[in-house]
Amino acid sequence: MRLLTAPARHPLVANTLESLLAYPDFRALWLSTLFAWSAWWGQNVVLIWLAFDITRSEFAVSAAAAAGLTPMLLGPVGGLLADRLHRPRLLIGAQSLGLATGVVIASLVTLDRAEYWHIVVATALLGLTTQPLMPTRFTLTIDLVGERRVSSANAVTTAGMLGSRMVVPAAAGALIATFGADVALWFCLAWYLPASWPLLRVQDARRGPRSAVTAAPAEIAHGFRYAVTNPALRALLLVTVLANMLGWPVVLGFLPVFAEEVFDVGAAGLGLIVGVHGLGALTAALAIASWGDFHWKGMLYLMATVLFGLGLAAFAVSGGFALALLLIFFAGLGGSGFGVMQSTVTMLLSPPEARGRLLGVLMISIGVLPGATLVQGAAASSLGVVTTTAISGLLLAALTIAITAVSPELRRAR
């Protein structure tokens, strides 16, 4: 008698899919993240486009982008909440705020009543629904899948987030060009509608007692002390600060300027630039997910950051739109590797009971981004966006190489 068996999956495919197939609660969290970040990516692109369309100012665009990133400074509070509260309910509340904010700003744009300050407030509120709660998503992930699978699970999460960044902003750019920004905003906020229902089934099993409210300041301070006295974490945080000072302001603030003034490709071209960057990010995330529990996580974090900086510098001086798309793809590869391994290595270097707080410290390091975005915007207004981006990318690559040379603990992190 012949037995029928399911075809064996290739090991790389099995590693990529294991977290989604073997852990139903993680699959629900992944779906929720996919929908919520689809809404955020799309709205962010449309709002930044509106900021430039209203003001025609690089600095005003950078200020609007910075407003959306300022909530990162609440990272330690978000990390403490992640260590204490029911995390699925916390995410549902944040996504509901995002939906309400989206409805208000889309209505203002539809009625032709939107002003620049409305854009700034909307980006800040939308940032509040995502940035401080990243420790919540990451700590819930490691509790649902375990330490052995966390690298692949984080990469699969990033693949979903950045796959949505590849598709939704490109569609939003096409909608702006064809129907207007109001239609694009309604399209983007609609992604919030299915974002919360998967979380209703997710269990949040806690290990150990929760501390009293009065202990909150001491707990946050303990997270900072642990981070600065651990050599590998200290180096990781320094690279994070550099990437968010020199690299991410370009991706989050300058792409509309490149599309409009450097390459002269308009809103549709902006959607294509963002989409190709997202394709590079998706490719890197899927590759990391397929590797499973590999042993060179710290080194990958460092080398991906170098690629990120070099890719942005080359993109800036490319001189032509087709070559620029190829180079922004490589910047996406590096940026995604940086992002996936940043949170993964932080969690693996942290005690389980303090992961949320240490991820909150990581968010503070990312929190230099709003101020850096303003500085980069001022530099671009003076030097030009091409020169500013090229210098920033080269500095990021060079300084990361220097840190790699003097940080054996981070190079060996696994």
List the helices and strands and how they pair.
Blueprint: H1 11-22, H2 24-55, H3 58-69, H4 75-84, H5 87-110, H6 116-128, H7 134-145, H8 150-178, H9 181-189, H10 216-229, H11 231-246, H12 248-262, H13 266-290, H14 297-316, H15 321-348, H16 355-366, H17 369-383, H18 385-406, H19 408-411
Helix pairs in contact: 1-2, 1-13, 2-3, 2-5, 2-6, 2-7, 2-8, 2-9, 3-6, 3-12, 3-17, 4-7, 4-16, 5-6, 5-9, 7-16, 8-9, 8-13, 8-15, 10-16, 11-14, 11-17, 11-18, 12-13, 12-17, 13-15, 14-15, 14-18, 17-18
Overall CATH class = Mainly Alpha
- What is the CATH architecture term? Up-down Bundle
Chain-averaged pLDDT: 86
> What is the overall shape?
globular
Number of spatially distinct domains: 1
**Uncertain runs:** 1-8
User: Element order, helices and strands?
Assistant: HHHHHHHHHHHHHHHHHHH
Measured between the Cα atoms of the first and last residue, the distance is 47 Å
Largest sheet: none
Radius of gyration: 21 Å
How much of the residues is beta strand, in percent? under 5%
Given helix and strand content, the structural type is mainly alpha
What's the β-strand tally?
Answer: 0
What is the fourth-level CATH superfamily?
A: MFS general substrate transporter like domains
Count of alpha and pi helical runs:
19
- What is the third-level CATH name, the topology? Growth Hormone, Chain: A
Instruction: Please estimate the helix content.
Output: over 70%
Pick out its properties.
single chain, 414 residues, mainly alpha, Growth Hormone, Chain: A, 19 helices
